Amino acid sequence: MPHTPIPPANRRNAKAMRRVMTDAELRLWNELRAHRLMGLGFRRQVPIAGYIVDFACSAKKLIVEVDGSQHAEDGGASADAVRTRRLEQDGWTVLRFWNDDVLRDIDNVCQHIVISASLAGAGDAAMPAPSAMRPNRRSLS
Length: 141
What we know:
The chain has a single domain (about 10-140), classed as VSR Endonuclease (Endonuclease, Chain A, 3-Layer(aba) Sandwich). Helices cover about 45% and strands about 20% of the residues. The chain has helices spanning about 10-20, 25-30, 75-90, 100-105, 105-120, 130-135, and strands spanning about 45-50, 50-55, 60-65, 95-100, 135-140. The protein is globular.
């Protein structure tokens, strides 16, 4: 990923967030780190477009967000939609999973990530974008 200037406050926030991960973020990170998931290279708590995303695979332009219940409360969903649109404008595909899904069904979460990554890297115009195949936020229950 090309390095772009990042405000020092954003860099400090991202670094602090790496030290204090939620249980769901830690569970998913243990699957993603060190190219463990099908060789995909993910980074955690990455500043992109003025936001700090949970996980990003720059080779596939894929972002994975792990959301807690606060994202379903007042304004959380609409703020997430604005954030997702902004990231998609830069060519990123954004996947969102609930904390509970990551903790209870990590295998299915990882399967969705691998499928989306393969679609992002396919470059086939006949293949629909992952967002056209299913909604941004996944409930795996």
